[in-house]
Amino acid sequence: MHIKLSTVLLAASASFCSVIQAAPAPAMPDAATLKQIYDTSRSMSGLIAYCVDQNHLKKDSLVQAEKMVDYVSNMPATFDKSSGDAIEKAGRQGKIPGSDGQLVNISDAPQGLEAWCKSADEGLRLGLKSIQQ
């Protein structure tokens, strides 16, 4: 997955979560989709922690990332959460799964690490805002 695309995926996942909250029960996505949303939220939580450790974001950003993980984790559905810890651990090392499945370092983002971190944080906050309305 392209690094910039991962930021978009997070925002889309967060927006999708708001649709899930507003939609009637039969509209609940399938387990594979929920797993992807969960894995993305765990990855972003780790990546936000990495950005905080690199002094590109403040600790409040990590609190927001944890809120997103909690929201997704507590969805009223059954889905596979087994890879969450490993995915978040990779994120805490500044790595994200690429389109070929190999880990890519966000430090190599074309826009630069600081801009990537700020963009990811902004997407996360917009997603949370949309689900809290």
Task: Using brief descriptors, characterize the structure shown.
133 residues, mainly alpha, two-stranded antiparallel sheet, 65% helix, globular, disordered N terminus
Strand content: under 5%
Q: What is the C-alpha radius of gyration, as a whole number of Å?
A: 14 Å
Shape summary = globular
Number of strands: 2
Would you tell me the structural class of the helices and strands? mainly alpha
Q: List low-confidence stretches.
A: 1-8, 15-26
Write down the domain tally. 1
Alpha carbon gap, first and last residue: 30 Å
- Average residue pLDDT: 83
Q: Name the strands of the widest sheet in spatial order.
A: 1-2
Give the SSE string.
Answer: HHHHEEH
Could you explain the architecture of this structure?
The protein has helices spanning 3-22, 31-53, 59-73, 84-92, 113-132, and strands at residues 95-97, 103-105. The protein has 133 residues and is mainly alpha-helical. The chain has one domain. Helix 3 (59-73) crosses helix 5 (113-132). The protein is globular. It starts with a helix and ends with a helix.
Write a brief caption for the model.
Residues 1-22 form the signal peptide. The protein has helices at 3-22, 31-53, 59-73, 84-92, 113-132; strands at 95-97, 103-105.
